[in-house]
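Show me any protein, fold above all:
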Amino acid sequence: MRISRETLESQQIWIYAAALLVGSIVGIASESLGNRLEILISPFIAILMYSMFTQIPFLALKKTIHNGRFLVALLIGNFILAPLVVWVLLLLFPQTSAVLIGVCLVLLTPCIDYVIVFTQLGKGDEKLMLAATPILLIVQLLLLPVYLWLFLGEGISQIVHIEPFIEAFLLLIVIPLLLALGTQLWAKKQTIGKQLFRATGWLPVPFMAFVLIVVVASQIPKVYHDFEVIIGVIPIYISFLVIMPLISRLLVSIFQLSIGAGRALVFSTGTRNSLVVLPLAFALPDSIAALTAAVIVTQTIIELAGELIYIKLVPNLIVKDSPDNRRMS
């Protein structure tokens, strides 16, 4: 039986669930093997980002810019309202420095990869979400240092150094982005380039699964060892998943967004950039790196479970079809 790309993409939720299960089993069964897999996290994320960037129609960025209401709502939701929600949640659930850094890294950065997948599964405008990815990426990279300073104070400069951030940005974002752009240009000029471009379309789902396996396998023992501390962040993550769709629904009404754009907004504000910021946690001092990484991985696990709920609730309850659309369907 030959598996098509469409079949692979339609089954990706179950593939990711299986990846989480496999990673958990490997990490719990053999902590030493899990530790050895940690070295694969950054390379796998880089390949994943390359494959995702290659599929982005960069010319469609015009569509996002021209859809000014969506763009403004997206920026307000992700970079003003989401940080305010995080600030309130941290007041309600105070955390130690290592845990606080992990929570801030993961909740203050909107997702730029699998959010596109879940937007599509949740019947949102995934093309609009895809086109907005470069803008989300640039803005979060500019604002993350500011957010860390605001949330953690001036002492953050003694803990978090800029060099690892720059290195991660170059290796995980800039280089994959340039390679993706080169692939797209090559595909327009030569047959071999076109074949490579088509082949990259197969990569996002398996490499997302690979990333989840190595991340969970390498970090689940740390989650287990520090569970008494990490359990304190679970209410923060669950509350964030519950609150952000409600806030986003208000933005949808205020900016009078279309149904597809509204659903895309809900998924964007509720989905965070856990896999990309994870290497930043590894670059922290050894005394806090392991716990901070475990805090981020915990968010990944909770979020993926939440996304399975999102894809049902968002189109059926939060941003529903209009009566006209329902009659047409």
In short: Residues 28 and 221 are 6 Å apart (CA to CA).
